[in-house]
Amino acid sequence: GMSEWVRCQLSDVCDFFIGxxxxxxxxxxxxxxxxxxxxxxxxxxxxxxxxxxxxxxxxLGALSSNVKIIPPDSTVMSxxxxxGRAGITKTSMYCNEAIAFxxxxxxxxxxxxxxxxxxxxxxxxxxxSAVKGATLNKKKIAEIPLHLPPLDEQVGVAEVLDTLDTQxxxxxxLIAKLEKVKEGLLHDLLTRGIDESGRLRPSPVQAxxxxxxxxxxxxxxxxxxxxxxxxxxxxxSGLYTPKSNYGRGTPMLGVSSLYSxxxxxxxxxxxxxxxxSMLEKYTLxxxxxxxxxxxxxxxxxAKTVAVGELGEGKGFEWHTRRIRVNKDT
Length: 329
Prior knowledge:
By secondary structure, this protein is α+β, with helices and mostly antiparallel strands. The chain has helices at residues 10-13, 59-65, 111-129, 138-142, 151-191, 255-258, 279-282; strands spanning 6-9, 14-18, 30-31, 37-40, 49-50, 55-57, 75-78, 86-89, 94-95, 99-104, 145-148, 211-212, 219-220, 232-237, 250-253, 263-264, 270-272, 289-292, 304-307, 315-316, 320-325.
């Protein structure tokens, strides 16, 4: 039970070391990967297991900057700027002065348990002490409080969490694969479509007799081409609301939520008032399509959202445009 858990601070059960940066003015301290040794910066802490880094340093660089070698299977964590990004090294490497690595005292602390526990423990220190500019120093790292189960329980806890991490990683890989499949299908379905039997129509190369020429190139014979303007009832820009009016009124679909939503139902949206004389003009109906008219990134332009039945009655804000389709066509 909890009675066997020990309250301690990190330095009671673990040694830790902080990295450094060789002088940038000495080219002989720096190596071009794959030569030299990996040298971790915060931007390299992108995944749980760490094999590589953007920059490498030479043996001379390591000696001159007083960095210690980090053995494989060590837990490392950032403690400046973005605090609590952790990873596990899978090869020998070094790190810069924004990253600490930990050497558990054998028999006291399991390295894998520490990987899962330390970001939360560090986060608590930052929150409780309101560390200015979010930086932990050596003393603060040493004092990170731990609630330590017996060693075998630490190992058991780490195994459960590691299993979940593995599942998440596999799921992410599957999602990436499905995204690729969808990309290919999107192209095929939007250029070839589906035949009477519900299958993807053969390509123009396989079955030229199923296609005809059009302003858009070859299209299936039953298809028409048409200008968007001939298929829609309305196309207008969203409502501008001064910031001081946010927080009350109608939930509004704006650029900020456009990118995270594909079908608008009852998601949480920012509220803004729509003047009653303009309610009709700026209120969404099921079947409307809203798209981004301007964006800070190119891929954001024309990101579309379809309005579902629960999205009815919401509004749409400036920087977005609404297309009301003619449902008969």
